[in-house]
Amino acid sequence: MIRIKGTPYQNTAAFLSAASHIAEYYGFEHFDRLPREPQRRTLPPGARPDADINFARRDEKHLPSAARRIAAAGMPPQGATLAWRTLPLPSGASGVSLELHAVGIDSAIAEALLIITADAILKHANISERILSINNIGSAESSGRYVRDVGGYLRKHIESISASLRPRVAVDPLGALVQLIERGHPAVSRAPQAMEYLTEDERRRFWDLLEYLEISGLPYELNGQILGSRDCWAHTLYEIGAVDPETGARATVAFGGRYDPLMSRFARKPYAATMIAIHAEARGATSVKVRTPGVRAMYFAHLGLEARRRILPALERLREAGIPIYHGLWNERIGEQMTAARALATPYILIMGHKEAIEGNVLVREVATNSQEAVSLEDLPSYLKQRRLGISQTADK
Fold it and tell me: Where are the transmembrane segments (predicted)?
């Protein structure tokens, strides 16, 4: 977890306030602001969506409450939910977990948005040496052979496994492997690797995420030991580690992944969901005030896959310059984004198409006159500040 000593914050509340402000810049809102829809009973009386879940990690035990709340909110008109909340650490240790959730987004942009937002939060906390580790366990349909091979591998080493864990090898091989990894068992280094079992479609999907990270300048490592329950997770899992500059010790400060299987239980239909949780120690005050979102004067729209890849680093550049902006990264069609911009009544729209992405430019369009000007991404923050485009709007409070 993050140690508050060594960060710019006096207490945990100050860290959470700064972290949630960064999350809100990227479009995340507090769970309390999510609407509630009346739930129709579609399950037999007494049936529960969280029954019979095999948890493999302590990190997973808070997921059902998030899935239940988001399912109660229903699908918003914009087609995606970005939300954050704070809660005690699932391990029971003295600390706080800041969770970010991106729901309703099936593409790899969801994981990329979460990782980049978390990285910005950690960077702002003066955690200079950050290590992003990623694994891919495939879908529930494609990972059956992997789980069978894990079970067979663990049975070969059953004599070296503690008696208390042996029964789990038979009923939940993946959960047993997670426990062995946490205990540092010597056999885990030669266990089957989930990424070797991915289908071609899953490999392409995984490569999309890696491309987002590379374009955003985020280094990463592939780590086959980042695993979790198949009842909770599918496809991508990731951790962010922080290295102590004095001792060189590495500690996990964030963990997350795609939890479609669990979210679908509560939504009672196929439902895409991703999250990341950042763990911080409890030091001094820990409660954080929920701000009222401010009005933003610009909407950043993209057209095409290349533009979508380039927007994330552009958004981070604008965030660092203190220029608030709306976006709809989860929308693939430009028409949906323009509809959102009209609904928000932003006087300016930034547009990046394929041509602009390749050239490193963005079009700055004034809605009232429909006039536009091409500006390089490098010069964009200074261009907007010089013309005070979006600077005089009400800031987030």
Answer: none
Residue 75 has a pLDDT of: 75
Per the CB < 8 A criterion, the answer to whether 158 and 169 are in contact is yes
Structure tokens at 97: 């977990």
C-alpha pair distances (Å), 42 with each of 124, 263, 264, 266, 267: 45, 16, 14, 11, 11
pLDDT at 72: 87
| CA 289 to the chain's CA centroid | 22
Please report the pLDDT score of residue 244 as a whole number.
78
Give the SS3 label for residue 176: helix
Domain boundaries, the chain: 12-141+198-281, 144-190, 298-386
CA–CA distance, 327 with 334 (Å, rounded to integer): 12
Strands (E), the chain: 29-30, 81-88, 95-103, 130-136, 221-222, 236-243, 250-258, 273-281, 298-302, 326-327, 348-352, 361-366, 372-376
CA–CA gap between residue 83 and residue 274 (Å, rounded): 11
For the segment 300-358, what is each residue's pLDDT rounded down to a tens digit? 999 999 999 999 999 999 999 999 999 999 998 999 999 999 999 999 999 999 999 99
Q: Which residues contact 163 (CB under 8 A, 6 or more apart)?
A: none
Give ∠ CA 136-91-256 in degrees, rounded to 5: 25
Burial class (CB in 10 A: 0-12, 13-18, 19+), 164: exposed
pLDDT for 387 equals 81
Residue 20 to residue 14: CA distance in whole angstroms = 10
Query: For residues 385 and 380, what is the distance between their CA atoms, to the nearest angstrom?
Result: 9
Domain 298-386 grouped into CATH 3.40.50.800: yes
Residues of the chain with pLDDT under 50: 41, 43-47, 392-397
Q: What are phi and psi of 183, to 5 degrees?
A: -90, -5
Q: Residues 271, 263: contact at Cβ < 8 Å?
A: yes
Q: What gap in Å lies between CA 250 and CA 243, rounded to an integer?
A: 4
Closest residue by Cα to residue 392 from 314, 327, 297: 297
Which residues are bridge partners to 84 per DSSP?
A: 30, 100
- Provide the CATH topology of domain 12-141+198-281: BirA Bifunctional Protein; domain 2 (3.30.930)
Nearest to 350 by CA among 294, 303, 396: 303
Across 89-110, b (16+ Cβ under 10 Å) vs e yields bbeeeebbbbbbbbbbbbbbbb
